[in-house]
Design a protein that fits this description.
Number of helices: 8
Radius of gyration: 16 Å
Structural class: alpha/beta
Strand content: 15-25%
Order of helices and strands: HHHEHEHEEHEHHEE
Oligomer: single chain
Helix content: 25-40%
Number of strands: 7
Shape: globular
Distance between the termini: 30 Å
Largest sheet: 7 strands, mixed
């Protein structure tokens, strides 16, 4: 069993060191975020969580999708990332929470959707953590697992090979989601984006 506090410290150190220039390193990702949010199928008045929101790049399109009557919450484990989100003015689009997605301070079945960009690779216990995301979403609600570039392009950027064990490979991700309360409804892994959509089972 891995030590959760060690995982948290590692994640906080990794992203904390990169928070200040995160947006400037990936300046062209905005349209990809907006497109992924559109695919989530949000409606006016919906309640949505950006899980592992980082600097909050999804918060603006999420707010646009749910309108003034909707609820947008961004949760992240790394204080420096949330501070960067505030500096960028994105706290105007959603409520920011310093929180671990493995133990969300949210009531069960209160959300219509969860958006998660680049999150799954950083989850210490993916099955359990996806189950926690399922807990806070109503039956029939949706989940988007997103990355602005696909698995092969990301691996190349990081100087590594894709392995068959990659959690985001469809044969691995589909049963992982199914065992955590989700049913995958679509899967796209292209150079320009990765997007897996799932529905919360009743």
């Amino acid at each position: 069993m891995r030590n959760m506090s060690d995982d948290h410290t590692h994640v906080q150190e990794f992203f904390g060191a990169r928070a200040a220039d995160w947006d400037s390193r990936f300046p062209d990702d905005g349209p990809a975020y907006a497109s992924a949010v559109a695919d989530l199928g949000l409606r006016e008045g919906d309640r949505v969580l950006d899980a592992g929101c980082g600097t909050g790049r999804a918060l603006t399109p999420l707010r646009a999708a749910v309108g003034a009557t909707g609820v947008v919450v961004g949760a992240d484990l790394t204080p420096a990332m949330l501070q960067a989100a505030v500096r960028a003015g994105r706290d105007r689009d959603g409520r920011l929470l310093l929180a671990d997605v493995a133990a969300l301070p949210l009531r069960s079945r209160t959300l219509d959707a969860v958006f998660a960009a680049g999150l799954i690779a950083h989850l210490p216990d993916p099955a359990e953590n996806l189950r926690e995301l399922a807990r806070v979403v109503r039956p029939g609600g949706t989940l988007a697992l997103f990355h602005p570039i696909g698995r092969a392009a990301l691996a190349a950027r990081q100087g590594r090979q894709i392995t068959p064990q990659d959690l985001r490979a469809e044969p691995n991700l589909r049963p992982l989601l199914a065992g955590s309360g989700w049913r995958m409804t679509s899967y796209v892994d292209e150079d320009t984006r990765f997007l897996a959509l799932a529905v919360r089972e009743g």
